[in-house]
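Researcher: Re-running this chain for the archive, since the previous output was lost when a drive failed. Same request as before.
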Amino acid sequence: MVLEDYVRIISGVSLAIYFTSILLYVVRLIKGPSIPDMVLAIDAITYSSITIFILLMLILNTPLLVTCAMVLSIFVYALNIYVAKYLESREMGE
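Model: Regenerated structure tokens:
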């Protein structure tokens, strides 16, 4: 076996693990007892989907997915800051 075959096998197993974790995060999102728990679940879902984009890039050998992952991660980071500011002061804007 070539190194690329090992990378594809490990990436496939990792994809299954990340999809399972996303399902568990969705359960936490639905059952979350408080809003910060739900926000944390959404963050974990998005960061797991970014990892899935990177793994798919390795499997499919398409570098375009890295751009999608970078844009999504920047958007999620900005959203985290905005939500944290809202939860801290209970006001929007500024």
